[in-house]
Design a protein that fits this description.
CATH superfamily of the domain at 195-321: Galactose-binding domain-like
CATH class of the domain at 195-321: Mainly Beta
Strand order of the largest sheet: 11-14-19-16-17
Structural class: mainly beta
Distance between the termini: 56 Å
CATH architecture of the domain at 195-321: Sandwich
CATH topology of the domain at 195-321: Jelly Rolls
Length: about 325
């Protein structure tokens, strides 16, 4: 037993996996009727769980068992697991595989298949193999589960746009548009105004700005937005654009709303952008939800038609930041 060792990566199924390896090796098992081994499990505290909490835990345990038993089967290139029991032991609720004198074998049913990191009814819960801090699996109401890659086996809930919280159950509230001049009424170097970027090549329209490029220029306008966030929060950037004959794009960022970020600690993040469709099209609205890793100090927002041929119209560019409490 000391040479085989338990598999450290298993929390369930480690006994079965141990004897699978035992059976493959040159080992012998002996039965000692005069030796009694007592395995007494204790709990530090008994918690009276409600029926709902008990069901949540049972649901979690089914998913947890599936994860580890599936791992055992995969390790030994197996697809089914059976328990063979001696006289006096029954598991009638399991499918019977075969019944021979003194031995009855049942197939162990595995819980329903769920995507990685999910468990429960209709796979509607995030699963953490250590239950997280509160001893319960995390519901993920408006998000997707993500297994941490740090070896902790904790599963987090990554929220869809507009939702926040550990369970993604809190509706995010956003500020009004932080861009003072969303319709490009003028371009200047003044604070709170759009400024010419690159080669300029712009002309004003009633509610927006045209960028006209012969294929060799960097046409654009930029906006300096000071956020000075005290803590990290979601930021939603939207824009509207129409185009006439836009083509020869090297990559989608050449016709886009483009965002550079300076964080509170003065580190930088470049290259977030909202691409628009080239060719000929009427006004289209697109949105990008940013989830910065750190509080944001300054955002530089650009409307761009760079090194591409054609004309692009932009209007109604907005930036809304998550309200912080």
């Amino acid at each position: 037993m000391m040479s085989l060792q338990w598999h450290n990566g298993l929390k369930i199924g480690e006994h079965e996996e141990f004897f699978m390896r035992f059976n493959k090796g040159e080992y012998k098992a002996a039965f000692c009727p005069d030796i009694t081994v007592l395995n007494q499990q204790t709990k530090c505290a008994e918690v009276q769980a409600s029926a709902a909490e008990a069901e949540r835990k049972r649901s979690y345990n089914r998913g947890r068992a599936r994860m580890f038993i599936k791992k055992v089967l995969h390790m030994h290139k197996l697809t089914r697991l059976a328990y063979c029991l001696g006289p006096g032991f029954v598991a009638a609720s399991w499918p019977l595989i075969y019944d021979i004198p003194d031995v009855v074998c049942y197939e162990v049913p595995l819980p329903e298949d769920c995507p990685a990191g999910r468990t429960g009814e209709n796979c509607g819960q995030c699963m953490s193999v250590n239950f997280g801090a509160n001893g319960k699996p995390r519901d993920c109401q408006h998000g997707t589960c993500s297994i941490r890659q740090d070896g902790s086996n904790v599963v987090d809930c990554i929220c869809h746009a507009g939702w926040s919280g550990v369970k993604c159950d809190s509706k995010v509230k956003y500020s009004e548009n932080l861009i003072v001049d969303p319709s490009f009424s003028s371009l200047s170097e003044s604070k709170g105004k759009w400024f010419p970027y690159g080669d300029g090549c712009f002309s004003f329209a009633a509610k927006g700005i045209w960028l006209v490029n012969d294929g060799q220029l960097t046409c654009g306008a930029g906006y300096w937005l000071e956020l000075n966030q005290a803590k990290q929060g979601l930021i939603v950037v939207t824009g509207q654009s129409a185009s006439v004959g836009v083509k020869n794009l090297e990559n989608p960022s050449k016709y886009s709303v483009y965002i550079d970020i300076t964080f509170k600690d003065d580190s930088k993040q470049y290259g977030s952008f909202i691409p628009f469709t080239p060719g000929d099209h009427a006004l289209e609205t697109k949105e990008l939800v940013l989830n910065p890793a750190k509080p944001v100090k300054v955002m530089l927002i650009y409307v761009l038609l760079r090194n591409a041929y054609g004309s692009a119209y932009f209007q109604n560019v907005t930036v809304r930041a998550q309200l912080q409490t």
